[in-house]
Amino acid sequence: MGFHSARHVDALNQTMSELKGDINVSFEFFPPNSEKMEQTLWDSIERLTTLEPKFVSVTYGANSGTRDRTHKVIKDIQDKTGLIAAPHLTCIDASRDELRAIARDYWNNGIRKIVALRGDLPEGLAKPDMYAADLVSLLKEEADFDIAVAAYPEVHPEAKSAQADLLSLKHKIDAGADSAITQFFFDVESYLRFRDRCATVGIEAEIIPGILPVSNYKTLLKFAGFSNVRIPNWMHQRFQGLDDDQNTRNLVGASIAMDQVRVLSQEGVKDFHFYTLNRSDLTYAICHSLGVRPSAIAVPD
After folding, report:
1. CATH 2.60.40.10, applies to 17-289
2. Annotated domain spans of the chain
3. DSSP string for 11-78
4. So which residues are the catalytic ones?
5. What is the pLDDT of residues 235-283, one digit of tens each?
């Protein structure tokens, strides 16, 4: 190892030690669609629960079957683990009365946190009846939910401009949202610039960075293609030649995620939301390396 490489590693180790676990984490899951995936999900939840996340969220599909699975998983997580469980809720495919009924059911079952989203537009629908800001207002009318919304450091794919996208986020915050969780990104500067721009328009809510640990680079490229996420050239270089080398891909993906958290922590960020893809190993290893230590909490049967 050369002198400069050794110095870089020493600096990285020093920064890692300075974190001392002084960060908060949360995790996103999606509802399983098979018995095998359900077992994988619960194995992941059980392992990541020991890290005492601030909350865990569960995504919400655009059909009633997926929605029902989300409702069940959320209630099961809260009942079995005691974690704060936050369902995603979309308004694109539900009436206001249906949304109010869902909100009341969640509140009556002890669910106090919701991730409020517009949802993907069905094919052929140019303009929805409701947007995320409308959903936030509706939820706040029903009960005093802790509401998170989505934010896009590299601009929502449907936004007319970066400024229009920023004002859309402000509208959601002004409607009553308590925080925002970003789309995943890899260019840390894009998040920092976005956070600065949020401050210039009066957004004071916390902007929680979404972190995606990469284990399958080809799948990432597909995700990034339809979500307007820029993949830096240096990432292409780091994953080059690893198509058939899962172990090395995991190491590279973990290293990138840890670097993101390291830099953002130095910039004052304390909360990080991990997109787990229902698998715990990589996320657990990253959090452990960042100083987020397992508790002695036992997960109830």
Report:
1. no
2. 17-289
3. HHHHHHHHHTT--EEEEEE---SSHHHHHHHHHHHHHHHTT--S-EEE---SSHHHHHHHHHHHHHHH
4. 28
5. 999 999 999 999 999 999 999 999 999 999 999 999 999 999 999 999 9
